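This is your field. Please look over both lines of this record.
***
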Amino acid sequence: MTTTARLALVPRDGLFCKDGRDWHTSASGRGHALDWPWPSTILGAMRSAWGRREEARAGCLFEARDWQTRTATIRLARTLALRRGFAAPWRFEHTVWPVAEDALWLKDQDHVNRLDAEPPDVPTLGRNDDDAREALWRPRLPQAGKPLARPRWWSAEDFVAWLSGKRVAARRDESALAPERRMQSHVGIRRDELTADEGVLFSHDVIETLEPHAEWAIGVEVELPGGAPSGVATLGSDSRLAYVESLPDALFKPPEQLLESFRSPTRGLRVVAVTPLCFERGWLPDGFVANGKEYRGHLPGLDPELILRAAFVPRPIHVSGWDMAAGAPKPTSRMVAPGAVYFFERADGKPFGEFDARSLWLAAIGARTKEGFGHVAPAVWSYAERAE
């Protein structure tokens, strides 16, 4: 019987999740780490934790092909980044979210500026003759100013306020929502002598998840046969230990402030990527096709036909990994980065409401959703009314 478990993976000694670059891409012999694990890495940790429990029950070790078949039914659903004070019970306020691409920090501004989308005035200089893409709305700068670096993470309070169309303060302590990195050095070992091989020196980044007054963790919603694993799990490229704790269901439910913002009907809808999105046509959501000078299609969970008005998408990310059973690298996929924002209107001109917000909260779109990719969050878009 398959059950759904909601768990927190609390790393004990930080994280090292290597990106897709080879160890020898530079003379430094340094392995570059991701700033947060891919969902597929988290799925691998859950499969390993479940499999080790089953090995203990069976009293034997599984072979490589057994791991593939026995864990094939495990599915990763929604994932969350978490940060709390030590020993505090988990609450929604402890969730941490990627900063949206329509948020702009300007020098000497005490608030975060909102990049609205507006119809284009001039065509782009690209060689593609896609009329629908040329007609996509472009970002509009709210005012002149010097852009500042965008932080990686947002607190739950600021993220929900941004989704709800509220003003968000440009806090000076936003850099605190970023785990520190440190470099860890290693030396190779001669197998025949069990001594150090000084000719094999390498290093890699470690993401520190413990802070003086807080700790980072990973929230997971996973479907697996039997009960949920407990105790400890291993996570990342060097199998660092992580404690397994249970999470309350409230962490995965849509916040009331966001639902309240949709109770006043809005003609515009923003969809913000929370985890990497895997689409067949790169940046364009699956199910949307060009119809004259518009992209039209449907989003999972919503019946009406939608018009894609704008897409604020940064450069793609390259997601890869290591197949533990095959002992070989997995194919590399180009995906849409977390924080990307898509702007929609309904083709029938009707407004979006609370039902749409509930349906899209942490919903999965695109491909590889059973690995935890493709999750999004809905947001109001009021510019559709102002553009008339």
